[in-house]
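Study this protein:
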Amino acid sequence: MGAEAEKQLSCGVLVINDSNRLLLMHAKINSHWDIPKGVKRPDETPLQAAIRETKEETGMVLTPSQLIDLGQFEYNFKKDLHLYLHFSSGVEIGDLFCNSYFEHEGELHSEASEYEFVPLGRAELLMCGSLRRLYERTLLAIIEDKIEETGW
């Protein structure tokens, strides 16, 4: 079996607010910020996984009709990303919460302990290397095109 067949698929949502800022979240033990995303379970579609992960990591309850499918992207040697775009009106940082945890050095840590809406042109400065490369090379242009296309 080749490396391609062994890659995991992580699914997530790029949330854009009324001010055309991207939602990023931060876990205290990480140096970088991330988007709501996570590994697709075997019994899920990418869309179902993205909706579940967004709910677990932000508390936002999204429906399929609220999401624009951006497709699947190469992320790193272990993982690909399937991403969706959501234009969100009226979301406040104070309304977001995380119900998802991971273990690190024998302790449970929240996957998101802080949230921020970041200007589209600055978001990559907070991201990890793999997400930063994808964002700079591909995602930022796609987001800007969708904003123009939809009149958001």
In short: Strands lie at 8-16, 21-26, 33-34, 37-39, 68-74, 79-87, 101-104, 107-110, 114-119.
